[in-house]
Fold this sequence. Notes:
Blueprint lengths: L15 H27 L11 H20 L5 H17 L8
Amino acid sequence: MSSIPGIDLTKLPDTPFVRSARQKSTELEGVFLNTLVSQMMSGLDARNGFGGGQAEETWRSMQSEQLANSIAQNGGIGLADDILRSLLQTQEAKTTPSSSTGN
């Protein structure tokens, strides 16, 4: 269930804007998840894996990024849906004429 009500994402038209907004929302969720996964992995003892060092740090960074992107591309944690709703609501507010007369 979304924390941002109002837009049913299953009924969105297949337009270039919606596709782009959906992709960017998923990418942003991936960035957030990468930060989360990187922090989780930073607490692991490197000596029990591949011996530590610069190579393992690089490998862990790449592993965190790939894991986060995989999570985001396969449904994520729902953050992309909320971001997409927010983007669409912002776009709708910009294109809907206001009811004020400007007096």
